[in-house]
């Protein structure tokens, strides 16, 4: 298949309308974890452009985080950066205290920080297992707990949103697709799915909505090897019925919608934003 196959077919590139006139999230404050690059960066920008103020959490890349913050605030939103490891309880508690200092409260939490430490199962070290589970699952637990505490304390402000708060867990297609060589990662995302649903069930009576977005293959630094050469891209397309890689902005748009009152009756749901990766593409011709 030639390198330009997908372009030659006239498949359109994904586009993000910048600074939409309608600011659906105006007056709301969001905390996005792991937002100095990739999907977290696109979500922070999309929320900012939809009118939300943003606390942009990141782990280590100061300069990148600063640049993303500039982009978030380009359409008028306020954005502050906050460095913290989401797997550290004290750091998470301090980050939510900062959130209240800066913005008064919290309306939207996006649990995005996540990483991979891949290894064949029998070679996987306990450190590789722990780091992935700690950031991807414990981190989402700690941040969600602080968010729920704040949402319960404050309750619904009808002039701002129908809900007391919204939590969006960034999971993965690997919360249902097993993934050899990535057992720690798949286990963490499977855990995120059940954690999300169980929290959603528990806090729904408080008008707190909890949902997941499960991305498929998205063009970010975490999976460069899967899309950066024509051969790798063609291989990847065998797993994607829609025949294009996801762009981080595809996830940003879904996050804005899930954070807005347009999705007010949705809680405990997982939205797969994956170009059909979860549709068993092997069965397109087999079976
Ligand atoms: C992983 C990527 C992978 C994608 C589809 C994501 O959750 O982080 O590395 O390309 O799933 O397999």
Structure description:
By secondary structure, the protein is an alpha/beta fold. It has one domain (20-272): NAD(P)-binding Rossmann-like Domain (Rossmann fold, 3-Layer(aba) Sandwich). It has helices spanning 5-8, 38-49, 62-72, 89-103, 126-154, 183-203, 230-237, 248-259, and strands at 29-32, 53-58, 79-83, 108-111, 165-170, 208-215, 270-273. Strand 1 (29-32), helix 2 and strand 2 (53-58) form a beta-alpha-beta unit. The two termini are 24 Å apart. The site of beta-D-glucopyranose (BGC) has 9 residues, from loops.
Characteristics of this structure?
Rossmann fold, seven-stranded parallel beta sheet, binds beta-D-glucopyranose, alpha/beta, globular, 8 helices, 287 residues
Head-to-tail CA distance between termini: 24 Å
The tally of domains stands at: 1
What number is the mean pLDDT? Answer: 94
Widest beta sheet: strand line-up: 3-2-1-4-5-6-7
| N-to-C series of helices and strands | HEHEHEHEHEHEHHE
Q: Tell me roughly what share of residues is in helical segments.
A: 25-40%
Q: How large is the radius of gyration?
A: 19 Å
Largest sheet: 7 strands, parallel
Which architecture per CATH? 3-Layer(aba) Sandwich
Q: Ligands in the structure?
A: beta-D-glucopyranose
- Say how many strands there are: 7
- Strand portion: 5-15%
Low-confidence stretches: none
Looking at how many chains there are and whether they match, the oligomeric state comes to: single chain
| CATH topology grouping | Rossmann fold
Number of helices: 8
Structural class: alpha/beta
CATH class: Alpha Beta
Q: What is the 3D shape? A: globular
CATH superfamily: NAD(P)-binding Rossmann-like Domain
